[in-house]
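Incident log entry.

Two folding requests arrived from the same account within the same minute. Monitoring flagged them as a possible duplicate submission, but the sequences differ. Recording both here for audit purposes.

Request one:
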Amino acid sequence: MITRAKLLFDLIGPRTLARFEDRCRHPMREQEKLLRALLHENAGTAYGRHHDFASIESVSAYQKQVPLTEYEDIEPYVEAARRGQPAQLTRARPVFYAMTSGTTGPAKYIPVTEASRHAKAGLMRLWLSAALRDHPSVLDGAVLQPASPEVEGHAPDGTPCGSEAGHAYRNMPKVMRGMYPVPYDVCEIPDYAARYYTLLRVALMHSVRVIGTPNPSTILLLSRELAAHIERLLRDVRDGTLDASLNIPAAIRASLVHTLRPDRARAGALQRAAAAGGGSLLPRHVWPDMAFLACWKGGTVAPYIDQLAPYFGPDLPLRDLGWLASECRGSVPLSDDGDAGVLAVGTNVYEFFPTTEDRKPRPTELLTVDQLDVGGRYLVYVTTAGGLCRYAMHDILEVTGFHLKTPTVRFVQKEKGIVSFTGEKLTEAQVLAAADDVLDQRRTDRSFIAAIGRPPSAGVEASYLFLVEYDTPPGDLVGRRAAHALDQALGRHNIEYASKRKSGRLGPAVLRVLEAGQFDAYQRRALQSGARDGQFKILRLVTDRAFADQFPRVVADYEGG
């Protein structure tokens, strides 16, 4: 059967790929053309007038006149736009604000315009074109894509703010919606357990060919939920119901239940799938025709990849989604191999600074896409259709090669002092703020040393371990309360940490009580090894689990759940 989606991709896919190939032959031509267009479009904005966009005619002039920016630098313009003042960062009014964690706690509001939404959609269409070229059977089945609610609030002028993934899901082209059987309403279920159950309940009625979500921890979570609710799911499929005990708003439940029909044949097939899984429903038995998984494969989420095989089999292809964030979508993988993608040179303007330079860059010394070396690692700055100019992403990218003349890059990690396993982007500042909230470091009988991000291992979610010295160790009750308070404080200072904790993708923070004196001993060892006394310092947020071995005298661990 030839579907509308298949006809569309047969028509658009080859053309989309050919156009991208042409851009990759002339990356600097594309970058310069895009920069001129963005500057011309936004020359009359408050930000454009301040930096005299109208006079800029070259990349070198752009680097001389426009500073490198952090969110805090553009926040006044964003807030003015959110209050309804026109033409702040972009001539076009933002249609949405993507909420993501800020570096000091409060949420960042990333403006999304029609142009920037169209730019991201174009790259998603490109990614799909390459994926469908390699896996055409996807068009014969369904795509399962978890997403968060689109709207979590509104700006003072009424513009919606929330999850960009939810925004994209809700606003996908009509021709694509037939491939996504789970209605957007499911994304609006506030209770995570109920949302995941409902997502699976609907998906079980379809031949899922792809599960797609940036973080593989979400795919693992869905797989475990599938195994945990066998009897309920089988009953609901057989009877055409949606478990009455689920905490689902009445309006959403009503919109879903009229679409469900009893299906004894499917229930029987699922019963046989459970038998094949040794009594457990495994995705590879439930959806045996699955073509591939779409998720990130590298960086700090890589430990999750090794845990997928028991659920999906060792041979199911995995295709990386590329380097993407709320601020921009920056690369497009064109095959299943590795975790690198081709820089989208026609969509955003990129500048780079080598990580080998242990200092802040000067605005005029950033490198362009034609100045990168294979194997080099760089901090990346972006200029986008959404109004970001020379914006510090705090991401480290590695150049893995070239596609024609355009660099291919892979995400390595967040910049120093930022850790992210599930998209939480926890910062040193947020960790220190949480410790200050809970530990009252004005007191002399306790001292916070560092938090250690612990990656996921078999059956155990990623979590954060806080090392704290006490002159007099607390009792168990006080220790448990402090651990719980640390977990809650991290959620207050980082909205995405709170979201990932609530959804079960992050484990609870752990307070490790240490005997006193160990930090002083650690510092002495460092000085003896050549560290300079006046410059001695440690990161307060690390991912090196061996760091904890420097403090071996442990009194107790208290979990914050």
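Request two (distinct sequence, not a duplicate):
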Amino acid sequence: MIGKVSATQGLRLVNVGALAALLGVLCIRPERLSLSHVVALCLGGVAFVAALAALFDRNPLARLVRLPALSRPVVRTVCAIAPWAALCLATSVMGLWWIQRPWEPKLLVVYALAGWSWVWLTAGREAPGPAGPGEEGATGTDVDRSVRRTLLGLACLLALLGADGLVLGRISYGVQASAWLALGGAAIAAITQSAGPAGRGRLLSACFGLALGLACVEAGIRMLHLGGNVREVDSSAIARQFYSMTPPGSTFVNWPKTLDEFEPALIEINSTGIRGPEIRPGPVDLLLIGDSMIEARQLPWEQTLGPRLQAALDGRSSRARVVSHGMRGWSPLLEWNWYLKVGRTLRPRIVLLFFFWNDLWASGDEVRTFRAVMSPDGRPDHFEVAVDSRWVWYKHVRTVRVTADMVQRVGVTTIRRAVAMIGTTPTGGQDLAGARALAKRMAGDGLLTESQLDALLSKPFAELDQTLQRLASLQLWGGLRPFRLWTDTQRTAAAATELTLQRFAEDVAKDGARLAVVYVPNAYQIATSECSVARYLDGLDDGVLLPVDSGIQTWLAGATARHGIELLDPSDAMRRLLQTRPAGSPPLYLRADCHWAERGHQFVADYLADWYLGLRPPAR
């Protein structure tokens, strides 16, 4: 039973309440539930159960950590520090992924890890380490108690600063430094609890010396005016303006996953925020704007659509200039916003907006989804994204900024050398047959039967069973279903996107240019050989080819026609190519993530070059 409430018991009650509140924050937003939320919920659930158990006199967790095998100081120290070391490794390897997670699951993860460390640290109070020669035990003298409090205070300060950066940080280097701060705090607290008075004294001296050394370095940097001109790569302003987490000047590698076949690709963002080399001054003829299909992180820059289209036009004796900009996760509202703030400064003659199936919302609209703040004239002004990094230690410690700049410069060189050493063997880890077999196992019983597929593509929403209704509510299947079957919610969302396209075209026209929309074909409508691995994960078995016309194509054709926007749809040309090409020819789409492969970028480049020059796209 729960005993008499003491100060310790009160802290335990507060801990239970805090964990319950954090779990509640994650649970009240089911539309934002993702894999990171699920993992955080599981970790938080375990922490919550452990916190509840701690309220009882017979706490099984307390008895566990007091087992002889686990009560040794070294074991307690390792257990308290280990999760923070793992977090340091995770943020170093997946820093970009970590900073793009919402703050709620990150806060719950950090809080749960702090609770884990606290259990192991407080367990040491009842099982102190042996005193060394001349030491007075774990409690020690008044001086030792002061040393202990000072060290624990320093540990708490480092842990709080590290947790702040881990939860709110939006800069890769800053998040990694925050993880190291948290690890340092956990290490100081663990050593303080397990060491004797002499060990604590030496630890305090080492911490004081390190702090004094860093203070002298900081003072020297400021006196020599170093770091004053270091460009602080802080993407909070970028995210607020463009809903993008990739600031100008970034350089990193996009690594393939297990099912992928492409090589690691070096991604370099120029000073304009566009992937590729710097853009020379002067107006451009063709400005390509899109999402990850145009950004094409899976391929080297020279193999992507922008440079391929430039080469195709040059080969046709055209002097047209091409600039392309794509950003993963973008859709018409974000692309319109970028054009208003950056794209129009390039003075394009023609703007090609690439429209993929996931650019049309199944419900809601982009304004609410992206928390866009619209100006009085109805144009996007900024986005209420919680990305501002309020880290005192990062914002005002110039040593950190100088170090970050040095790491970035060294990192770019190292990345370039690593990419240059990559061989010709695919690094995805699976050949095609193995990748398909693995994907099929991952799909399990999720493959759609012929009758289920027929129902999805022919029956009204109300006549579908619960499983198919869930699928029909997703962007992929919602857009593939015939337009006549769309729900009122879908049509409302589509109307909001149509208004964005209309306003986009009007702004381009005011600049003396014209907007054309390019529909990005769905690989599952082109050929069964395209995107041959991911199809299983989307519920499609071997040999299933979706109808050539979809609801999204019907809607897009009507929306563009109503506002005088030219629509380009290379779907038929792609199908003709695949019907006549020799066996064994490279695919147009990558096998696992359904972005264009090198051959797909080249095909679309030729298609657009012929269109731009007024030629009829050839049937190959």
